[in-house]
Model the fold of this input.
Amino acid sequence: MKTPPEPAPDELDLSQLFFKLRRRWLLFAGALLLAGALAYVYLQVTPPVYGLRATMLLGDQATGSKRAQELLQILEVHDKGLKMEDEIGLITSGATVRQAVRRLPFAVAYFREPASWLNRLRPVLRREQPAAAMPFEVLPDLTAPQLADVRVYVTPAGAGRYRLQATAARARLADLPTGRVVRDTWNVRLDTTLAAGDTLRHPLLRLVLRPVPGVPFEAGAGRYGFVLNDVNGAAGRYAEGLAVRPIDHDSRIVEIRLKNSVPVQAQAFLDTLMAVYIAADLRAKNQTGRKSLAFLDEEIAKLARTRQQAAGALSAFRATRGVVDVQAQSSSEIGRLAELETARARAATTRRYCQSLLDYLQANRGGGQMASPSSAGIDDGVLNSLILQLNELNSRRAALSVNGSDANPLLVVTDERIRSTKEALMQTLTNMSRTAAIGLRDLDAQLARVRGQISRMPENERQLASLKGESDFNEKNYNFLVEKRNEAALALATNTTDKRVVDRAQRTSAGPDSPNPKLVGLIALLAGLLLPAGLVLLLDKANQTVQGQNDLARMTNIPVLGVVAHGTPADTKDLAHRNKGPIAESFRSIRVNLQYLTAGPDKKVLGVTSTVPGEGKTFCAVNLATELAHSGRRVVLVETDLRRPTVAAYFLLAPSSLHGLTSYLADDCTLDECRRPSGVPGLDLIPCGPVPARPTQLLESPRMATLLQRLRAEYDYVVLDTPPVGFVAEYFVLVQHLDATVYVVRHNYTDRDLVGRINELYQDEKIRQVYLLINDVRFAGSYEHRHQRNAYAYYK
Done:
């Protein structure tokens, strides 16, 4: 007997995991084949997508030139600039993408459907083509509504003619340049022919088809066609594969990537997108410069008017007050006052000298020496000449008077000349005195006037300073704004954008970026392995049936008697007369274990039961009794499962025509009449006999207890094929007569919860001496018994 191992904690057993997966290798093979087929179809159906890359320098965050920025700072116009995320958002914005698309021939998208088995049921294999690879060119009328987003197939219809076909359950007529939907239409059926170069005037289409020289329709190449796109649809398709990011965290260079199935069109779009963004940036900067220029012009006009008014007020004040320069005039008036006071003092001195000299001459009309008037500060030529002449005459008279008398003619003449000179001198002094008096009066008037002007000077100076300060302020601001206006005009004329293209658009690789056959193959391989592995693990976790002794050890402490190998129908046929093979060896091992357990004279009655039908309890009871008989014991097999009797079939007996246990318990026959030989030496049978109406009452009768007592005395082992525990109560009627119970659990069939029920009975001591037997174990499919899979070859 095998002692159940202690329950082990849940841990990952890689060996057990690989064993479970290896058992389902057919599932893995099928999953790999299916994944490979799907990968092949995916590679065929998915159009190749090419990656393109371009780089662009976004410059600093400020907009406009440095001069414009300095001007905006001076004028307190704060511009915080754009962040990198904002600029990336502008590049990928719908407005920028649509503007770039409008510069391209966006309206027509060409395609070709190759002649492949994948397109037989429906067109799933389609390849978009550049315009240069098509045998025709479509020129739609962009001013008329067109059938948008519907595949139109073009086939040659003779020399210089084309056939156009299209079907759609629902479509729309749209204005292609704006994307505006004109109207919806249903059940579109288009089938018309058109000559090359002619205009198709159809309610749904208005276009011209022209052949492309040198590109013919290839025979067997499939179907050609085109789709008309509005600007929104074309922009949306480009925007789906557009990605912009900086090449580094602090870098102002951004990398623009685009994925598209037509690299020529994608390259043109990326170059156009960068050109549109740079042009928009330059327009924004020029607009900022023009606004600055307009602002300066407006401010200059305002200052010009204010400046003119301030200058007029200053001129009027100067004209009315006679003030040109207050400071200079103040200094001049003070100097003039000093000059006038000096002149008045000189004039007063002159007048006083003249009056004094005149008084002297009038008092001394005779001759005598006189002082020169220049000594008094009088500088007059006539006066000085007369005084000098008088002094000479007085000197001559004095000389003549020394040697002559008063009658001397020379002396008389000299005296006469002295008198006349004095008269002339007195007359001159009188005139000079009068003139000095007049000058004094005039100087006094001038002094009064100058002193009045000097007293009024502080108020004029204050008013003049205020008017002059306002005028100077306006003049300075005017000159400053005129200078800045000239600088702004120069900056606007020479303005350039700080954005520029670093690398123009080019393909990132020689082949398509997707689909990647290696990656698709790897994904298919992983899917072909992981999905069935997950399914196997899921089914294993969802499987609640008994998988082996480890499962039983986790659920119950009932010891395991042994395991019975799985056999083919040929292996189980007439097994009672065969003593070779894995099944026979399994029961032989069980018999040996059972003999150790049931050693003793009082352990002779064995019951074989299970929980539900189908677990092989009758099969195990028959083979266990047979194996006990082969060991030299006298054994009797009693079929106590009176509801579904099957023992007779194992020994080629007709159960309905034989007396059996039911006949004996009903007292319709004797023991010898119901007991039958099995054909196996040492083994007798007591089959069920006729199926009774009330089997429980028969098994509870005293004749059943008497029968078992008699069989216990006659045989070494009495094996009872009892009814299942889970369905009927007959087992609990018989359990009082049993020395031991063999509880059959079928591998991968018996539910674990059912084992829990027998375990409850065992723990509650309602049944004793219970041993588990695992039936129908596939050694090759059981991890616990995998080492026994070679027993099939060894037993032969």
